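Session log. Operator J.P. requested a structure for one protein chain; no other inputs attached. Running the standard single-chain path with token output.
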Amino acid sequence: MVKPIILILGAIPILAAIFIVVPQLTRPEIQSSVVNPEDVMTIQYTREHLEKVSFGITQSIGADTAEVLTIQNDGSVVYSLTKNGYSEPDVKYQLSQDELTRLKSLIKETGFVDIPSVVYHVKPNISDYEKYGIQVTLNGKTVNIQWGDQNASQEFIPPIITHVQSSLDDIISEITK
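Structure written below.
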């Protein structure tokens, strides 16, 4: 029979681990403690709906819809939309300080700017897909990444990229409500 004191001593490290792990799992956001007030960050995010158009013998890929989201260091946002070749008026927006801090935290905490600039190519037989591009400049270091939908891509798109994409898509949704 095991003595109760041994059970209690064995339970202490388990309880300590639970108290450390559970808050980390239940907190959905990235910590903002990594953001330095002197950080300078700009983001340019593009989202294009591309279609392959056939002209008989030749084929071309054209953008049906193109969206550009530009976020400056002070949280000012400009959203541009071009649809069927016609530009709509730019929409200006201001991110709250919390939204801006959350976005900066996401970029810094995940090491997004340490990803090498890369283009993820799409499959040659795809005729209708979304293409994304993001250029992040953080404290003078710039990374430029371009990719297509995961279904259209020849390669696996890392979750870090799709997580940043999702955050920027949420900002576009907020702006275009």
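Operator note: The longest helix spans residues 4-26.
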